[in-house]
Amino acid sequence: MDYAATGQEALSRIAAAQDLDTLEGLRVEFLGKQGSISGLLKTLGGMNPDERQSEGPKIHALRESVTEALSGRKAGLEGAALEARLAAERIDLSLPAPDMPRGSVHPVSQVMDEMAEIFADMGFAVATGPEIEDDWHNFTALNMPESHPARAMHDTFYFPDKNADGREMLLRTHTSPVQIRTMLERGAPLRVIAPGRVYRSDSDATHTPMFHQIEGLVIDKGIHLGHLKWTLETFLKAYFEREDIVLRLRPSYFPFTEPSVEVDVGFTLVNGKRVLGGQEGWMELLGSGMVNRKVIAAGGLDPDVWQGFAFGVGVDRLAMLKYGMDDLRAFFDGDVRWLAHYGFAPLDVPTLSGGVGTAA
Ligand code: DAH
To answer: What gap in Å lies between CA 73 and CA 170, rounded to an integer?
Structure first.
């Protein structure tokens, strides 16, 4: 048997293999269970000792050289494949992005970010609570017991089943229950805002069944109405980016505050349009007041030690006033033309230093 010729042929076919599949085919052909070289090895068993002595080393050497050639070629092909892949997948990071990112940030999200940025600068943290609430957090703990007429005014969406504690379940009608949850969870002193979705069974040109509020809550010692007024004024000047914002506090009623104040903001008429600032006229902006003693107690705190103020404001309305939209319903239609017009660039993150008011 001419092992040298067999070896030559095997080695040249291995050298000529252009891909890993072909190479694997050759490995099976030569060295697999039914392979030709494996077959030669099996013939050793049928040889006499002399033959075996002379043929054995040749067959083993053949097997060795083929095995070596296979693994050498394999490494070569794998290296080439990796090189080709690296070349094909190369990204030039110095190139500009091929397209501006698609999509935009909804004005409601943008305004919530703006408000969080402004209040963070005043030392407020962001708190959250569930949109599916129980009637204790949403009403009772906020000094609205079961028979309270204010409950009826909220047009509440109720769930058919009570929770495990026997409490009626509902979609929260305001962000005020986050006041209770935060006091119970974090204790005092506190400075938080709580932005989020709220729900009421109400729908017309100025009402949608889901809308957005931001709640504010400060609990500390010796807090009074002056702190509330300063905080709201500082916030509104930063938010509307105008120094001439004037506030008017009117006595009002909310069950969870005592005294309660309705805050109006002054506007000026420019070409028949209302522009915030000055005091030619007033528009109602938000509800607020000193936190009712009963609410502080429901939050697990001693009202003889801790006082506080709270406020609640509609985010959608704040967005409309600042960015000039006049139909609330368009906020939630998902019309891409509206979003392209009123939305914000994804990378246009509001910061106090960069400005919280620049429209995209
Ligand atoms: N929760 C009230 C509402 O939805 C708004 C409000 C008024 C919140 C006065 C407050 C507050 O925290 O003090 O109409």
So the answer is: 70
